[in-house]
Design goal:
Length: about 190
């Protein structure tokens, strides 16, 4: 399976995870390739997977009255999903789309739930994985609630440099909640200091 070494390293960074646990978990995992602009999850569908990004990156976004509102970017060695839809089986209210060709290890929801019933280690790992994802999302939410657009950009440059380096300016502006022109002005002002 492509990405096996990377996903195992990631899982073991969350908690001690045995070789036996890995053998039990593997049937729930598959490798998948997505082309740029392919949906990993479409708004209105139920999220049946966790995606571990091996190569490339993707974004989460809402489409509101024809306008795209970017809400997150996920790069190599990160998990992306819709936690609410994944856990509850309700339809997703946002999209996940590949921003460039993307390789992922896909965790199948139904198989994970079944395996977790019989393996306390896999169940604990699932909780750790979701906790990591939730902490990351909460951290960004706090930054967006408390900081100005310029401070948010500064935070991303310091803590998520891959986002600022790889995401096109117009998409980054949408993520920061400003117009492209405003973001260009902020960047020029910061460079001239």
């Amino acid at each position: 399976m492509t990405g096996e070494k990377e996903v195992l390293h990631f899982l073991r960074s969350l908690m001690p995870f045995s070789d036996q646990g890995w053998d039990i978990l593997r049937p729930a995992l598959t490798s998948r390739e997505f082309r740029k602009n392919d949906f990993l999850l479409e708004q209105g569908a139920v999220c049946r997977s966790l995606f571990f990004v091996v190569k490339g990156y993707c974004k989460t976004y809402y489409e509101i009255e024809g306008e795209v509102k970017n809400t997150g970017f996920f790069f190599e060695n990160e998990i992306v999903t819709n936690i609410n839809s994944f856990g509850s089986g309700q339809k997703s209210d946002f999209n996940i789309v590949a921003c460039e060709d993307l390789s992922a290890v896909v965790f199948d929801r139904e198989k994970l739930f079944e395996i977790s019933k019989h393996s306390a280690e896999v169940e604990a790992l699932g909780r750790s994985c979701i906790r990591r994802y939730a902490v990351r999302q909460e951290e960004l939410l706090t930054v967006f609630q408390l900081y100005s657009a310029e401070e948010r950009l500064e935070y991303l440059e310091k803590n998520r440099p891959e986002l600022v380096q790889r995401v096109p300016l117009s998409q980054l502006a949408s993520f920061l909640g400003v117009r492209r022109e405003t973001l260009s002005r902020i960047r020029r002002r910061r460079v001239s200091r």
